[in-house]
TrEMBL record:
Keywords: Lyase. One of its GO terms (molecular function) is lyase activity. It comes from Microtetraspora malaysiensis. It is an enzyme of class 4 (lyase). This is DJ-1/PfpI family protein. Residues 1-162 form the DJ-1/PfpI domain. The lineage of its organism: Bacteria, Bacillati, Actinomycetota, Actinomycetes, Streptosporangiales. Its EC number is 4.2.1.-.
């Protein structure tokens, strides 16, 4: 089972690494990080890098496509080469998935028109501009397309996907292996819950 995760400059690392840590446990999983060309791709300049194993042009098909988001995703919404590649991959996938603003790339590729989908709360207007209907859920399944909300929800999505690819017991075993037992110290993980002071600080840039 080939799982391909495309990388691009200024992707959000946890969007890719969170699902990777889950899906790598699936039987016979082969995970390939891809980019315009092989080599290190950074989440922000001079910061964390992941290594792309292959170029997009080297991959002709995959079973699972997992598109991360990040600040760089918005810059690629009119990148015909990447969007065309996403469409080609989607044509042969069993599952096409996204995390955070990765859903904007699915939308720009024409895959979300008429579907319910989710994304980071700060990108709802862009998501809906592609004909999707935003729903404020952590994970949304629409046929073979699966979208996850912001950043950390990629782990939830990957566990839900693992249950469908394998079974619930396998997914639960993976959850136990990574000790995914969220107990956040604060209840500020969504705009509906976050105190105004936190929103103000984020708006100023943290």
């Amino acid at each position: 089972m080939r799982i391909v995760i495309p990388l691009f400059d200024r992707f959000t690392a946890l969007d890719a690494v969170g699902p990777y840590e889950v899906l790598k446990f699936l039987p016979e999983a082969e995970i390939v990080f891809a980019a315009t060309k092989p080599g290190p791709i950074r989440d922000v300049p001079t910061s964390l890098a992941l290594t792309a194993d292959a170029a997009f042009d080297d991959i002709d098909a995959c079973d699972v496509l997992l598109v991360p988001g990040g600040p760089g995703a918005r810059r690629l919404l009119d990148d015909d080469a990447l969007l065309g590649w996403i469409r080609r991959m989607h044509g042969g996938t069993t599952w096409t998935t996204s995390v955070c603003t990765g859903s904007l790339l699915l939308g720009a590729a024409g895959l979300l028109a008429g579907l319910s989908a989710t994304t980071h709360w700060g990108a709802v207007d862009v998501l809906e501009s592609f004909g999707a209907t935003y729903t404020a859920e952590r994970v949304v399944f629409q046929g073979k397309i699966v979208t996850a909300a912001g950043v950390s929800s990629g782990i939830d999505m990957a566990l839900a996907l693992a249950a469908r690819i394998a079974d619930q017991t396998t997914a639960e075993a993976i959850q136990l292996a990574i000790e995914y037992d969220p107990q956040p110290p604060f209840d500020a993980g969504s705009p509906a819950k976050a105190p105004q002071a936190a929103k103000d600080l984020l708006a100023r840039g943290i």
